[in-house]
């Protein structure tokens, strides 16, 4: 091993006290569990608990990730925003599928959400634009709010023994099913 590998292995990993995930006690709807975990992250004082890695794909299938802020969760899905002229907007136009990965190191929790992305209406986009610190109060025709409509959601609760607890949700025909996951989401 290299010196770097040794240094990386010696870094602190998870906090001493972490929550426990009991797969048999999770709600039927993954949004309920996600919002509970997000509330816990907010209450912990974690910085930017609404930040996540948002992954799209290039035309050749190469994945691309960047950090974005979650704007809302509602019946439309998980909201993010960007200019409709941005690279990610162009990528979503070519392939309207994406993934979000949230990681809250303070609790050793991670959530991966995979689904289709739709552009929301002008009213939602402009309402979001007008709340931004850079808004001058005028509409911005380039501003777009998108909603990721999940069909797969995986919750991971880390454990010190690295035998992490995972619960996966999948949606078919508008209904969610869930169960323990033995391998990470692919």
Descriptive report:
With 186 residues, the chain is α+β, with helices and mostly antiparallel strands. It has one domain (26-173): Electron Transport, Fmn-binding Protein, Chain A (Pnp Oxidase, Chain A, Roll). The protein is built from four helices and nine strands, in the order H-H-E-E-E-E-H-E-E-H-E-E-E. It has helices at residues 3-10, 30-43, 87-94, 122-130, and strands spanning 51-57, 63-69, 72-74, 77-83, 97-104, 109-119, 143-157, 165-172, 175-180. The radius of gyration is 18 Å and the shape is globular. The mean pLDDT is 94.
Per CATH, which architecture? Roll
| Rg, Å, rounded | 18 Å
The unreliable regions are none
| Helix share, percent | 10-25%
Mean pLDDT: 94
What is the helix tally? 4
Beta percentage is: 35-45%
Shape: globular
Concise description?
The chain is an alpha+beta fold and 186 residues long. The protein has one domain: Electron Transport, Fmn-binding Protein, Chain A (Pnp Oxidase, Chain A), CATH 2.30.110.10.
Descriptive tags:
186 residues; alpha+beta; Pnp Oxidase, Chain A; 9-stranded antiparallel beta sheet; 9 strands; 21% helix
List the helices and strands and how they pair.
Layout lengths: L2 H8 L19 H14 L7 E7 L5 E7 L2 E3 L2 E7 L3 H8 L2 E8 L4 E11 L2 H9 L12 E15 L7 E8 L2 E6 L6
Antiparallel strand pairs: 1-2, 1-5, 3-4, 4-7, 5-6, 6-7, 7-8, 8-9
């Amino acid at each position: 091993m290299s010196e770097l590998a040794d240094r990386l292995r010696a870094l602190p990993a998870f906090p001493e006290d972490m929550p426990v995930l009991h797969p048999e006690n999770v709600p039927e709807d993954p949004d309920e569990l996600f919002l509970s975990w997000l509330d816990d992250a907010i209450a912990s004082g974690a910085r930017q608990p609404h930040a996540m890695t948002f992954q799209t794909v290039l035309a050749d299938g190469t994945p691309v990730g960047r950090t974005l802020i979650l704007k809302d969760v509602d019946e439309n899905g998980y909201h993010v925003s960007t200019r409709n002229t941005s690279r990610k907007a162009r990528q979503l136009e070519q392939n309207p599928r994406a993934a979000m990965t949230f990681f809250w190191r303070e609790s050793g929790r991670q959530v991966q959400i995979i689904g289709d992305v739709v552009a929301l209406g002008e009213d939602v986009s402009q309402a979001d634009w007008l709340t931004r610190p850079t808004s001058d109060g005028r509409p911005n025709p380039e501003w777009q709010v998108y909603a990721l409509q999940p069909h797969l959601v995986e919750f991971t609760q880390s454990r010190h023994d690295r035998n992490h607890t995972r619960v996966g949700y999948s949606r078919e025909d508008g209904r969610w099913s869930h169960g323990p996951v033995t391998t990470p989401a692919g």
